[in-house]
Structure formats: structure tokens, C-alpha cells
Amino acid sequence: MLKLGVNIDHVATVREARYRGQGRGEPDPVAAALVCEAAGAHGITAHLREDRRHIQDRDVWRLRESIKTRLNFEMANAPEIVAIALKLKPEIVCLVPERRQEVTTEGGLDAVGNLEALTETRKRMNDAGIEVSLFIAPDPTQVEAAARLGAQFIELHTGAFAEHFDQKQARNQELERLVAAAKQAHGLGLKVNAGHGLNYQNLPVLHLVPHLVELNIGHSIVSRAITTGLSVAVKDMLALMETYRN
Ligand code: PXP
User: 214 CA distance to ligand 1 centroid (A)?
Assistant: First the structure.
């Protein structure tokens, strides 16, 4: 069964737009995570960025305490964040690029160019009982490097596939790259996740990629929640206004 990890970063983005620096505010990404779990999500994904632009430190600790599924902690391979991950003990970390030099041309982590540093972090995480995934482009050299450095998972970057979804030829090319990378990774003993830009239109086509274990999806789910939830939100506000007497 294909599993769903819901990325709740975008919930925090909305909160930070109003409450940045205040240590409080709505919407609460942890409350959102609990709703996702209750709806059947298999895991929660959150990215504590070095610049803290959306998820804050307090969010990840509260997530760790309250979620009942699995915490997938997205992180840059930066000393400060590595130290937090080792204390936080998520079930899995997904190493992602945050700086330009860590990024391959397709936008994934440059596992080939950062082999030593990534291997060291992979070992430290595994020694602490945390599995490691690498967010990489569907590029054979990157898949090879992920296997060489001993990662348990790769997360295939589906951004290019999503971006080219409306152009049939380019979409099919991206799909073929994902299929080839998934097969290669599986053959090398890696487990395969995928994510970025997946939505309600492109997901059925992604079913053509073999060996997928889990998809990490954020923006499209949070976007849909806004439109599907607006009706109730407006009705609740109108109900509060109804008792006004001038
Ligand atoms: N996977 C990784 C590694 C990510 O960094 C993100 C967020 O950019 C996602 C999945 C989810 O992407 P989206 O919000 O486009 O669904």
C-alpha cells in the first residue's frame, strides 16, 4: 500500500505571515498534523529550515510529543540542525538542499558532490536509530551515490515531472526518468519515496512509477483544505454574528 506523508510546512507559512516572532498564532501546524493523522495519513513531514521561515523549533518538539504516526524530519545537512535531529529522534530524516551549492541542476541534493559529509551524517543518524532518506533528482549518478553512502531511502524529486505535466512530451520524459531511477534504486536495495509538486491532477500518472513506498505531499493538500474548508469557516463566523443586536 502506497503511504502518504503530509507536509505541514505550508500551514506554518500561513501562521508566520501574521504572527512571525510572536511564538503563537493560527493556524497551528501541530493541530493540522493531528487532523491529517485522523484522516488516515501515514506520517507527518516537517522541514525545520535554517532560516526558520515556516516551521519553528517549538513546532517540531510539539510534533514529536503529539503525533502517533511517523515524523519525517526534513533538514539541511547543517551542524545546528543535525544536533536538533539527534535530540528530536524522528523516525526518519530526509536530507534536502537549502543552499545553492548543495543543489544539483534538477534541484535535488547533490549526493555525488557531498558524499563524505552526507555519509558522516547518515552514520550519525543511523547510530541514533534514525533512518535516512536523501531528496535527489531522478539522476543515475545521484541514485548510485545515495546507495554508496548507505542511505535507507531516497525521495525522488518529482518537481520537474509536476512542472512539465501539461506538456506531454516533456512530462513523459520526466516520467521515464522517475521510472528508471526507481528501478535502479530498488535494484541497489534502496527504498523509494517521492515528492514535491504532487497534486490531485498529476498523482494518477505517477502510479506508473514502480517501487514507491511513500509520497510526501504538502502544498496541494493544504491548498485544497482552504477551498474545501471555507464553507464551514464562513458559516461558523456568520453564526457568531447572528446574535448581534443593535
Ligand atoms: N518532499 C520534499 C523533500 C520537500 O522539500 C517538499 C516541500 O517542498 C515536499 C516533498 C512537498 O512538496 P509540495 O509542498 O510541493 O507537495
Answer: 12
Question: How does DSSP assign 158-210, residue by residue?
Answer: -HHHHHTTTSHHHHHHHHHHHHHHHHHHHHTT-EEEEESS--TTTHHHHTTST
Distance 188 CA to ligand 1 centre (A): 24
Regarding the beta carbon of 155 and ligand 1, being less than 6 Å apart is answered yes
pLDDT band at 201 (very low <50, low <70, confident <90, very high): very high
Q: Does the CB atom of residue 196 touch ligand 1 within 6 A?
A: yes
CA of 47 to the centre of ligand 1 (A): 9
Residue 197 Cβ < 6 Å to ligand 1: yes
- Quote the radius of gyration of the chain (alpha carbons, Å): 19
For 178, phi then psi, to 5°, come to -65, -40
Catalytic sites, residue numbers = 47, 74, 196
* pLDDT at residue 101, as a whole number: 87
Q: How far is CA 195 from the centre of its chain?
A: 7
Would you say the pTM of this structure is higher than 0.85? yes
Per-residue pLDDT tens digits for 94-137: 999 998 889 987 899 999 999 999 999 999 999 999 999 999 99
pLDDT at 106: 81
Q: Which CATH architecture has domain 3-241?
A: Alpha-Beta Barrel (3.20)
Residue 7 in contact with ligand 1 by CB distance below 6 A: yes
Give the pLDDT band of residue 81 (cuts 50, 70, 90): very high
